[in-house]
Structure prediction request, 146 residues.
Amino acid sequence: MKKGRILAVLFLTLFLTFSLGFAWGPRGYWPSRGYGPYYLNPPLSDLTQEQIRKIGDLREKFLKEIAPLQEKLFAKRMELRSLWLSRDLDERKINALQREIIDLQTKIAQKAGELRLEISKVLTPEQREKLSLYGPWRGCGRFVMR
Prediction:
């Protein structure tokens, strides 16, 4: 009787351990979440050296432009966090800070859109068509949506 209980508990423990391992996947998160492996660096192997150089320059310029915005955004988020953790909640300050954060996020998103447009101008129509297969919601985790 005692051996049967021990074996049952052992079997149940092993079963739960393996089932959780399969559910969470190899990277420690749900396999159906995320943007996929090619979201930021799509596999365009047919780029010329000139295109690679231009795209690299555009990305560098973009990163330099958004660096101060990201620093401000980080500072504003920390300030908002401290306001939320304070004893006396000041609704006007919190709302104003949230608006500033949204404005900064919008500016960064606009710059990212401009970068994408500039990069698409560098590419040929065939390369742009190939690029359209990748991006948000086009390869979430292990599952590719087509």
In short: The CA atoms of residues 72 and 104 lie 8 Å apart.
